[in-house]
Amino acid sequence: MPETTAAAYTSELAEALAPDVLERFLRYVRIDTQSDRAHAQSPSTPGQLELGRLLVDELREIGLEDAALDANGFVTATLPGNVPDARAVGLLAHVDTTPDESGAGVEPLVHRGYDGGTIELPRRGTVLDPALMPELSAKAGHDIVTSSGDTLLGADDKAGVAEVMAAVAYLAARPELRRPTLKVGFTPDEEIGKGAFLFDIDGFGAECAYTFDGSEIGELTDETFSAASAELTIHGVEVHPGMGTGKLVNAARLAGRVLAALPQDRLTPESTSERAGFIHVHAVHATAGVARIEAIVRDFEDDRLAEHMALLRRTAEEVVATEPRARLEFATEQQYPNMRTFLDRHPHVSAAAEEAIRREGLEPRRVPIRGGTDGSILSARGLPTPNIFTGGHEYHSVREWASVHDMAAAAAVAVRLAGVWAERSG
After folding, report:
1. Is residue 170 within 8 Å of residue 24, measured between CB atoms?
2. Looking at residue 3, what is its pLDDT?
3. FRET pair for 212, CA 20 to 30 Å: which of 167, 187, 268, 391?
């Protein structure tokens, strides 16, 4: 099939996969799988196990007899290859959704033949306005899936889960199609940056893998942010406010001053784009006695990430130092690295994905992602894992949506990817 633009893209393979992708997606998003930053166990929430058990049942129905769910919430399975000496390739997606917005009681809506206009959802007054969402304006004629407006949809990353499942089912039903051994993996707690650290890479047995956890059709990601988190705890002096003269040290007010002292027109998610990093304060818990500020820090370059973290710490120290009786605790944690450093050592892995996207009739676009994926951690741990698009958009919000057309394209790319690796191995 010749290369074409995403807007003009059509594919018999994707059309064949679309009904199965949509049916699976609508089933999976109804299960609440939000991860929880406050819980240390894996998986952090029971809903992830519920979806994991469902996936194991469905994988076995497809014919992947070794499908299993382990104690940490990882689902793994094998579709044996039919090319001698072919290297095993992994297909991955994560089952959890972000804890930043409700994922309970998701009621997906399918907007058939989207007319290109505003989509008004029935709850919370949520509106999808193509004037504010250029990706949506390009999807006229597509079937669009949304939530009802008061929850996440769950496209991040149940679109990826549905695409991997549909692709594997398609290949399992067509033994005449050449393929390597495919190792299927569904991971928990990606959204809180925890799951991939517990993934049994040796037991998985793949030479490389691909996460289906991207966004716009045609995109391939082999570069991500490097990421760290910070927790600032300010201890004040609590006392009855009526007797607070000369005694009270209000930690909540000090926290407010820290926030006000941070850059307002730069180094924030709302003021940066492309390769510029940021400091993002995502939670504040404060009383007069104790205040806690939670932030994430991001950049593509490690030295700039360190500079941003130093600025955050220095700002807090300077504010708290104005009140000698106050005390500051500052804790940081590295979350995930830029995968570029590790994938640059294995250029053939990303090249195979590019070839698969081309064979599906699309022009691949390598884009750095202003976020991270399981592939960031897995690549650093020795399993080269770039990221492929899924067709979902407006992640981590009640405006989240996905194009069925583009989800089917991602599933088709997974099928093409198996063919590329079969040729390279056979």
Report:
1. no
2. 44
3. 268
Residue type, 277: G
How much of the chain exceeds pLDDT 70, in percent?
Answer: 98
Listing from the earlier edge strand, what are the strands of the sheet with 109-111? 109-111, 144-146, 401-403, 392-393
Residues whose CB falls within 8 Å of the CB of residue 212, separated by 6 or more in sequence, listed in order: 91, 92, 93, 157, 159, 160, 161, 163, 164, 387, 388, 389, 390, 410, 414
The SS3 call for residue 168 is: helix
Say whether 96 is catalytic: yes
Instruction: Give the pTM.
Output: 0.90
Among 32, 96, 191, 219, the one annotated catalytic: 96
pLDDT digits (tens, 9 = 90+) for 121-134: 999 999 999 999 99
Distances (CA, A) of 393 to 96, 115, 166, 241, 315: 16, 18, 20, 48, 34
Mean pLDDT of 293-318: 97
Question: Of 135, 155, 157, 161, whose CA–CA distance to 6 is shortest?
Answer: 135
Pick the catalytic residue from 150, 163, 190, 299: 190
Alpha-carbon distance of 403 to 388, in angstroms, equals 15
Cα-trace Rg, the chain:
23
User: Rounded distance, CA 235 to CA 328, Å?
Assistant: 6
Query: What whole-number distance in Å separates Cα of residue 50 and Cα of residue 162?
Result: 16
Q: Nearest-CA neighbor of 247 among 198, 209, 289? A: 289
Q: Is 376 helix (H, G, I), strand (E, B) or coil?
A: helix
Alpha-carbon distance 403 to 141, whole Å? 10
Strand blocks (E) in 127-272: 127-128, 144-146, 182-187, 208-212, 219-221, 226-235
Question: What residue spans define the domains of the chain?
Answer: 12-224+338-425, 226-336
Measure the CA–CA gap between 366 and 247, rounded to whole angstroms: 58
d(CA 301, CA 223): 11
Cis status, amide bond into 57, omega within 30 of 0: no
What's domain 226-336's architecture?
2-Layer Sandwich (3.30)
φ, ψ (nearest 5 deg) of residue 221: -115, 120
Helix, coil or strand: residue 384: coil
Q: The tokens 């037991």 sit on which residue?
A: 203
Which one, of 56, 134, 138, 62, lies nearest residue 95 by Cα? 56
Q: How many other β-carbons are positioned within 10 Å of the β-carbon of residue 310?
A: 11
How far is residue 326's CA from residue 253's CA, in Å, rounded to a whole number?
A: 11
CATH code at 12-224+338-425: 3.40.630.10
CB 385 within 8 A of CB 220: no
Tokens describing residue 322: 């104005």
